[in-house]
Amino acid sequence: MPNTPAPPTALCFDLDDTLIDDVAASSAGLRAVMERIGHPHFGSARALWDTQTEISFGAYLRGHLSLDEQRRERIRALTSQAGHANIADQHCDELYRLYLDAHRSAWQVYSDTHTTLAALGRAGYRLAVITNGVEAIQHAKLQALELTGYFHTVVCADTAGTGKPDPRIFHFTAQRLGVDPSACWHVGDQIQSDGVGATTAGMRPVIIDRSGRPPFEGLTTITDLESLPRMLGLAAPAGGI
């Protein structure tokens, strides 16, 4: 791990696959759609879904597709792989609602999320969420998983008017927190949107990689959230840090 940076006054967090296990939730949603359309191979479906999501959701963030259009593109890629071409918009929408229902039923935080956020909050750090996810869904996750109370602000791309890695969403969040971007660390799992975005915005990026791979060169990398309080010199709270 690179040298520990200067302590921040605020910490910003990505949400999906940083605080919440979105891989597990999206896999549950994907399996529900696969069962409905008769898709037999999860590995190939997962790879396609991830690739198409990056393409289509990225186009949505850039304003090239509507929210419904990017969802339909992702569903059509999956149904085409399963041998069902040219399905109607209404059918796409029905399948995506099935995906969302199964996704919602599988929402779960990582085991170190609550204890880490509680420790940081008790220590007086101002906390925020910066997410490219849709506001209605992301706020529902935070409320359902009892995370809302930890954060001074939650900033979503669709309401901020721009998404990560655009530095404007980071600056907007820092402004809401009442701090300079240079006084913030941003914790997330994506090199481009979280690492490059935070760096460009003047924040210190911390990449969380729970897979246990070697640290990313030049970036502060952690394998769990419990590392954050330790990096900041905080005592381990009861409950597992």
CATH fold group of the largest domain? Rossmann fold
Q: State the order of secondary-structure elements, H for helix, E for strand.
A: EHHHHHEHEHHEHEEH
Contiguous runs where pLDDT drops below 50 for at least 5 residues: none
Query: What is the count of β-strands?
Result: 6
Rounded to an integer in angstroms, the radius of gyration calculated over CA atoms is 19 Å
Ends apart, CA distance between termini: 19 Å
Determine the structural class based on helices, strands and strand pairing: alpha/beta
The largest β sheet comes out as: 6 strands, parallel
Strand content: 5-15%
Mean pLDDT: 94
Helical percentage: 40-55%
CATH architecture of the largest domain: 3-Layer(aba) Sandwich
CATH superfamily of the largest domain: HAD superfamily/HAD-like
Structural summary, described in words:
This protein is of the alpha/beta class and 241 residues long. It folds into two domains: 10-21 and 109-231, Rossmann fold, CATH 3.40.50; 23-105, DNA polymerase, domain 1. The chain is 49% helix and 11% strand. It has helices at 22-37, 42-61, 67-81, 89-105, 113-122, 135-144, 157-160, 167-177, 191-201, 227-231, and strands at residues 10-13, 126-131, 153-156, 184-188, 204-208, 220-222. A six-stranded parallel beta sheet has the order 3-2-1-4-5-6, sandwiched between helices. It starts with 9 loop residues before the first strand and ends in a 10-residue tail after the last helix. The mean pLDDT is 94.
